[in-house]
Amino acid sequence: MDTSAVNILFKQHFGYTPAHVVGAPGRLEVLGNHTDYNEGLVMSVAVDKYVSIAASPRTDGKVELVSSAFPQRDIFWISELKHNPAAPWADYVKGTLVQLRKRGVHFSGFNAAIHSTIPIGAGMSSSAALEVATALIVRQLFPYSLTELGASVPPPRDNRGRLPPLEAKEKLHLARLCQAAEVEFVGVNCGLLDQLSCLFGRAYHVMNIDCRFQSVHHAPMPGEALVVCDSGVKHRLAAGEYNALREHCESAARALGAKSLRSVDLPWLKANRGNLNQRQYECAYHVVGEIQRVVFAEKALSDDDHRQFGQYMFLSHESSRDFLKNSCPELDLLVELARAHPGCLGARLTGGGFGGATINLVAYHQVESFIPAIAEQSEQRTGRKMKPVVCQIVDGAG
Fold it and tell me: What is the dihedral of CA 229, 348, 313, 271, to 10 degrees?
């Protein structure tokens, strides 16, 4: 992670060198669309695009935030963590501070500069990375430990002033804290996928996440390249589409007499279709099928069958498009163009949908022909320039 840009931003704005810098990676959901809040299975990776925060403490009880992505700074008292319509991007920071306080973490004011290389609105979870980075910078400035019950004895620094890395149990507490920040303060009723992925990533490995048991297992990722193509359509999940999908899924589970759609299989869903309205059935059909696709894809990976793995990605996109209905024409076009390229093994929308980006599994030796071909064909069809980006799989934060 390159911290030079965030250090420069901090120094330009505040006039001195920051005390600490942290970073949190974005993530790509490889398979498992909208399965996390249905207690399902997801495959994801942490990637080499980061939210970095540089910060130093201050003594007057205020927090001042600047961001390289937004012209409007935000300054507020730590005792008054409220929404500022002029700087809505700061809600992710404030929401995380609210949750830290709820758990008994003591902190004072600070100055912070935020710089991101994660494309905003592309479905790579810049919001979760900002929440996680906020929790980690507060830990650096005002050390704390988290348990199930809240804050406990702060961790000691070593003789070089470094804190010990987070253990798996504490990463899980931190992920839940950041999820609560997004649900309660920002208003997106999200699952735990993004925050878990940001913290539990492992270089060159895919994460197999079981959202019912909140467990993460790592498996080697095939030696193909992951290429991200941004549709140019910014998704705004807080606008309600995401929350509506969640409500359809949860009401479908209730109508089927299940705790969640994780407990439903396809024969049961089809046999009880009469209990559901059309939209509930479509959403449930997608989620139940998607959980099965993750199971089959894990098997394909362990068998080293990368082409079959890619087929599950294509099937996932078709299901998102036709049943969950969280795709859009721009995403569908990118998948169609990718499918036509001989080097592409699989492609699908990634993240919440309603815009954002596609993830493409491309044979390494074909990447150099894939990228210009997709860029050129996409521009011909849409009139918009698009630059595909190769992502490396990296370790998580903390």
Answer: 170
Query: What is the tens place of the pLDDT at every residue in 30-56?
Result: 999 999 999 999 999 999 999 999 999
Q: How many domains does the chain have?
A: 2
- pLDDT exceeds 60 at position 238: no
Name the band, by pLDDT with cuts 50, 70 and 90, for residue 233.
confident
Looking at residue 18, its pLDDT comes to 98
**Could you give the CA distance from residue 82 to residue 387 in angstroms, rounded to a whole number?**
37
What are the residues whose beta carbons fall under 8 Å from the beta carbon of 152, sequence distance 6 or more? 145, 146
Residues 6+ apart with CB under 8 A from 80: none
Q: Tens digits of per-residue pLDDT, 76-92?
A: 999 999 999 999 999 99
* Burial per residue of 196-215, b for 16 or more beta-carbon CB atoms within 10 angstroms, e otherwise: bbbbbbbeebbbbbebeeee
Residue 15 bridge partners (DSSP): none
> pLDDT (tens digit, 9 = 90+) per residue, 280-329?
999 999 999 999 999 999 999 999 999 999 999 999 999 999 999 999 99
CA distance 312 to 32: 10
Classify residue 268: in a domain, yes or no.
no
User: 347-391 pLDDT, tens per residue?
Assistant: 999 988 888 899 999 999 999 999 999 999 999 999 999 999 999
pTM as predicted: 0.91
The answer on 227 and 101 residing in a single domain is no
Catalytic residue among 194, 304, 322, 395: 194
- End-to-end CA, the chain: 13
Task: Indicate the Cα dihedral angle 332, 334, 339, 340, nearest 10°.
Answer: 120
Q: Please give the residue range of the domain that contains residue 350.
A: 220-248+279-391
Cα-based distances in Å from 258 to 252, 255, 289, 290: 9, 8, 16, 17
Domain co-membership, 237 together with 112: no
Q: Does residue 395 carry a catalytic annotation?
A: no
Is the residue at 253 inside a domain? no
398 within a domain of the structure (yes/no)? no
Q: What are residue 205's DSSP bridge partners?
A: 220
Tracing tokens 């920071």 back to the chain, one arrives at 93
CA distances from 157 to 24, 132, 296 (A): 21, 20, 45
Same domain, 198 and 329: no
CA gap 172, 167 in Å, rounded = 9
